[in-house]
Amino acid sequence: MSKGVYKIKNLTVKNSITGVNVGSGVGNGGTFLEIDNLTLVADYNHFGLSGGGNIIKVGTATCNGSTFSSNIATMLGDQIYVSNYKAAGAHRSFHHQAVSITTVTDVNRHTASGIAWKVSPTSTNGTSYAPGIINLATFCCSANNLVTFKCWVKKSHATDIAASIVLTAYQIAGVTSDVTATKASDTNYEELTITFTPTADGVVTVQGRVWWVANAADDSVYFDDITITQA
Question: Are 149 and 86 members of one domain?
């Protein structure tokens, strides 16, 4: 089977092996796979498609392992989105070098309402060269007017983990290099700000990036309360 779009209604993986490669020859980069119900009977070091760079959407995932990092950690470049991870409404997203993206409603929010996004590298391979990436916002901009993007960011450890917000270059005319703001080395909430002036009307996406720095990969970064203005 070549790369393309596939759907599986029910998939149960029973063997206790180091990794799961769904379908011999399926993937090879650029494949979209939708699985309604996924059951992993044993722990795995990774789960994904061949070739990397694929997207897997899972409706309900049932896992016998005790930690999500050993249950679903993606192969290189795959992105896995799970609507119901071990429990109804427990949304999870796994990217790159085993990075988990979840929502929280606990004391780690910046304000005591709504949700915050929690990004957690689960492998020391998730360095600055392969960070966890979350798309914080996609929005329209008008030409020749200053855009200001702000987001509150918090780290669980001052130096073992790092984070930034980034507008990557060439998404829109007038932005020819990455525009970045990096979280300070502390555990306080900090409002990061980036500004740019497009020279044409268009749509851009600002990312949050998180990467492992030192010691065990057991820390997290929280993103909350975004403000976007244009002069």
Answer: no
CB 101 within 8 A of CB 143: no
- What are the tens digits of pLDDT across the range 129-162? 778 888 899 999 999 999 999 999 999 999 999 9
Residue-wise pLDDT for 158-170, tens only, equals 999 999 999 999 9
100 domain-assigned? no
Tens-place pLDDT, residues 16-53: 444 445 443 444 556 777 888 877 766 554 555 555 56
Together in a domain, 63 and 138: no
pTM for the predicted model, two decimal places: 0.67
